[in-house]
Amino acid sequence: MAIWHGDITLEQVQQSMGNCMPTFLGMQITELGDDYLVGTMPVEDRTRQPFGILHGGASVALAETLGSVAANCVVDNSKFYCVGQEINANHLRPVAEGVVTAKATAVHIGRSSQVWEIRISDPKGKLNCISRITMAVVPVPAS
């Protein structure tokens, strides 16, 4: 059974990222499962640190993007929106090139908060980063 609010498509989810940092870093949402979201990001000059490997901040940006997009797909956006409260990441192994793939899955979906785990893997499928984000569920202000 899907956890998403309403009928959403992969195209709608991709468009929800807008024309901001995720798009600039080359992130794409590639899969929308019943209870998970998958996205990718290239390892290239925009996302590498000076030593030639994937920047930890870029991994965290990918994790936060997937967690935020997923959290906002769970709630009724006419009544609520979700914003990050806390994120952590463990960087396990370097990635020098290719495309990393991240999968966000819900750990907790509550009325006022959500917790998502994001696992980022290298092109060979080896885990290179694991992250967890806590999202606040905020009421949309009355207009």
Task: Describe the 3D structure.
With 143 residues, the chain is α+β, with helices and mostly antiparallel strands. 20% of the residues lie in helices and 41% in strands. It has one domain: Thiol Ester Dehydrase, Chain A. It has helices spanning 10-15, 21-24, 56-74; strands at 28-32, 36-43, 80-91, 98-109, 113-121, 127-139. It has a six-stranded antiparallel sheet with strand order 1-2-4-5-6-3. The longest helix has 19 residues, at 56-74.
Distinctive features:
Thioestr_dom; 143 residues; globular; 6-stranded antiparallel sheet; Hotdog fold thioesterase; hydrolase; alpha+beta; HotDog_dom_sf; Thiol Ester Dehydrase, Chain A; PAAI_dom
Layout: helices, strands, pairs:
Elements: H1 10-15, H2 21-24, E1 28-32, E2 36-43, H3 56-74, E3 80-91, E4 98-109, E5 113-121, E6 127-139
Antiparallel strand pairs: 1-2, 2-4, 3-6, 4-5, 5-6
